[in-house]
Write a structure and sequence with these properties.
single chain, 192 residues, alpha+beta, NADH Oxidase, 7 helices, globular, binds flavin mononucleotide
Length: 192
């Protein structure tokens, strides 16, 4: 497969369709090595990885369920159960954390966030290249201060994405893709 074929073949596998086995530790590190090779203005490395695997997935799910009930004591059982299971489908979830150092006035925050987002995309590509399926998800847990504290994020850190990784249980259907032709315009100078 050429590099272009690999880009064209990328697609998400829904977290519920990701099963065992997940990547072992050396394979994960291989993926993270590729994912870390992103463009990085000022070489700030504005990202880090947090592994959520094994029993930690279930512990996090329990915390999410409790938080949902705390925010809405009348939450439907199905909602609470969805949150309980959120991190338990795929064998492995890597939280890609954007490190947005406010002291760093030279590199705009958006550029550090874009860098961390690029890591998420590269990690999806690396997982698929190694025969795994993956999905880039966020959802409310990525934006809830209590959950972010539980995950150990600092005040200047954000979740760029939770990358769920495992073995696809079925071939994910392709979805309609944007028409690049329709997205492309030419800039033309108005100056005479
Ligand atoms: C920053 C970000 C967050 C996302 N969060 C979610 C999410 O919480 N739930 C979801 O269903 N899809 C989410 N998606 C979309 C999926 O990752 C995926 O792109 C989508 O299902 C389309 O599939 P594709 O990757 O094959 O194009 C998110 C995408 C991005 C870029």
């Amino acid at each position: 497969m050429t590099p272009l074929d690999a880009l064209d073949a990328r697609r998400s596998v829904p977290a519920k369709q990701l099963g065992e086995p997940g990547p072992d530790a050396p394979t994960l590190l291989r993926m993270l090595r590729s994912a870390s090779r992103v463009p990085d203005h000022g070489k700030r490395v504005p990202f880090r990885f947090l592994r959520i695997a094994g029993d930690a997935r279930r512990a996090l799910g329990e915390a999410l369920a409790a938080r949902t009930l705390e925010l809405d004591p009348d939450a439907a059982d199905s909602v609470v159960e969805k949150d309980r299971q959120r991190f338990s489908h795929a064998p492995l979830v890597i939280a890609v954390i954007a490190v947005l150092d406010a002291e760093d006035g030279k590199i705009p925050e958006i550029e550090r966030l874009l860098c961390a987002g690029s890591v998420c995309f590269a990690l999806l590509q690396a997982a698929q290249a190694l025969g795994f399926g993956a999905s880039w998800l966020t959802g409310w847990p990525a934006y809830d201060a209590r959950i972010l504290g539980l995950l150990g994020l600092g005040a200047q850190e954000r979740i760029a994405g939770f990358i769920h990784i495992g073995t696809p249980k079925l071939e994910a259907p392709e979805r309609e893709r944007p028409d690049a032709t329709a997205l492309l315009t030419d800039w033309v100078s108005n100056r005479a």
